[in-house]
Amino acid sequence: MAKASNPLIVQSDKSMLLEVDNPLYEVARDSLARFAELVKSPEYVHTYRITPLSLWNAASTGMTPDEVVKTLETYAKYPIPGNIAREIIDYMSRYGQISLEKEGDRLILSCATQNLAEELWTNKRVRELILERLDKKRMVIEPSMRGLVKQVLIEFGHPVEDVAGYVEGEELHFELRSTSLSGRPFKLRDYQEASAAAFHAGGGVSGGSGVVVLPCGAGKTMVGMGIMYRLQTSVLILCPNVVAVRQWITELLDKTTLKPEQIGEYTGDTKAVRPVTVATYQILTWRRSKDGEFEHFKIFEARKWGLIIYDEVHLLPAPVFRVTASIQATRRLGLTATLVREDEREEDVFSLIGPKKYDVPWKQLEDQGWIATAVCYEIRIELPEGLKRKYAVEEDRRKYRIAAENPVKLEILRKIVEHHHKDNILVIGMYLDQLNIIADELDAPLITGKTSNTERGELYGAFRRGELKTLVVSKVANFALDLPDANVAIQVSGTFGSRQEEAQRLGRILRPKTDGSLARFYSIVTKDTRDMDFAAKRQLFLTEQGYQYIIASGEEEVWKEPIQKLFC
After folding, report:
1. What is the dihedral of CA 279, 280, 282, 283, to 10 degrees?
2. How many CA atoms lie within 13 A of 182 on its CB side?
3. pLDDT tens digits for range 428-471
4. DSSP state, 185?
5. How far apart are CA 188 and CA 176, in angstroms?
6. Distance CA 114, CA 201 (A)
7. Which of 118, 447, 491, 509 has the highest CB neighbour count under 10 A?
């Protein structure tokens, strides 16, 4: 029931304002995250928005319109506008009104009402995909058009529930080890088991496609292995880079009874197709010329795959979306820490990979000790007088680079690194000129896209063994980098306003620490510039997950302050 002491204001345009300085803020934030998107997060009032896709994802996890409305009523300061409850019901009820089902060899598009069927039948773009109309509510679709139908219909505001089932892949029998080859006890954590169960859905047609959303460091690879174990079938695993490919292979050999000859690497270095094949997005999208064919798409037909795993699905390249549209009869699992895509193709993930099946708030896993407790800092510095005029007259894109490469950042960086000299530090940035200067100043190795996989492996190994205390890394370290002892990350420049990049970079230091110590994430930004504007956008996702940024100037040297004092 609405009351003045509540933290939430619900507005008729489907936006919501959430007061941060309110005792109910955290529980309201976690509740809103299930069905709304965070739009902006200044210090005192955060703005959320309800969208069709956010509501359909909520519906796909079993949340009902009544639960959404009740949540709003529980935390609302004023009565909810009359149109809001109606729109929540209307949008969420659309999920499941259109379904794809299998009848013999035919693929049937089935509508809940005759009026809805008429709407589809009279739509020129949808009509082109229909082979014949069976009756007032059902139509026959060409099986190869299964993905395209779902893409087209979600554009018209009609998500399709796909219960047409899947082809069975080649059988592949293996066990999960109770003790890994490295000698450690192994068992899926409760939330990993729950993730696998939600995706599998008992092996029925309601399972088999969708996305599991878990924080970096929470063991998404283990979820993938748990699903592979349930299915006991051949698997194609797609990853963002070679490092990720080899980490998958290492984990599979360590924690399952799969043999080396059953697992193949398919990358620029080697191309082996085996019952479990792990490939990169990069090799799949390689072609000899801009207009040439994607020669390596043949891997999708190389075996009778029973499951395709898309690791870091928010990075899935557009060409792989296209081929995914044609293989909808194969089970598909997306793994990610965030459903946010910088190209705004979240609807394609929903349609072609599947809806969100399971997620856990980051702070919940932090509270349970599964990921490290993290403290985030934003250190704001001035642009030197000599650069202010140059900044003022440049165009926007160049403005950002000037601010991002602010030489004052090096002074602050050096002080933070000196303070954390006993810690394991990653310095992360975007611009190679800046990173080369930093590497020289800190006398630390630099890893970029040009660093060979062999050299990367050697440097990562030295870091894990404690022989190196500081690594300077470019964007190549954003994803699938397993450095469990890294506990300090210092970000000097980022990919403009990329929310998923901020999440991934924090994720580099979220592996639980053996000594229980905190992880610290510093962003050094140039005050009153595009650098600061983009930093605010990047922080949106982490704010939604419950992380607060300690804002300070370089002169304040907050890295020296006890955490308890900073949060007082």
Report:
1. -20
2. 9
3. 998 999 999 999 999 999 998 888 878 888 898 898 888 999 99
4. B
5. 9
6. 30
7. 509
Q: How many residues in the chain?
A: 568
Per residue in 465-487, pLDDT (tens digit) is 889 999 999 887 666 566 767 88
Mean per-residue pLDDT, 192-209: 92
Rounded to whole angstroms, the Cα distance separating 265 from 44 reads 49
Per-residue three-class SS string for 104-151: CCEEEEEECCHHHHHHHHCCHHHHCCEEEECCCCEEEECHHHHHHHHH
Following CA atoms 284, 286, 291, 295 in sequence, which dihedral angle do they give, to the nearest 10 degrees? -60
The Cα-based distances of 489 to 61, 376, 483, 562 in angstroms read: 34, 10, 12, 18
Residues with Cβ within 8 Å of residue 271, at least 6 apart in sequence: 265, 283
Q: By the 8 A CB rule, do 552 and 525 touch?
A: no
Amino acid at 413: L
Give the tokens for residue 374. Answer: 């993290």
pLDDT, tens digit, 9 for 90 and up, residues 42-79: 768 888 999 999 999 899 888 999 999 999 999 999 99
| Domains recognised in the chain with CATH numbers | 8-94 (no CATH), 98-162 (3.30.70), 190-360 (3.40.50.300), 366-566 (3.40.50.300)
Given a contact cutoff of 8 angstroms between Cβ atoms, the answer to whether 165 and 107 are in contact is no
* DSSP 8-class letter at 96: T
pLDDT reading at 499 higher than 70: no
Strand 209-213 and strand 356-359: the pairing is parallel
Q: What is the reported pTM? A: 0.83
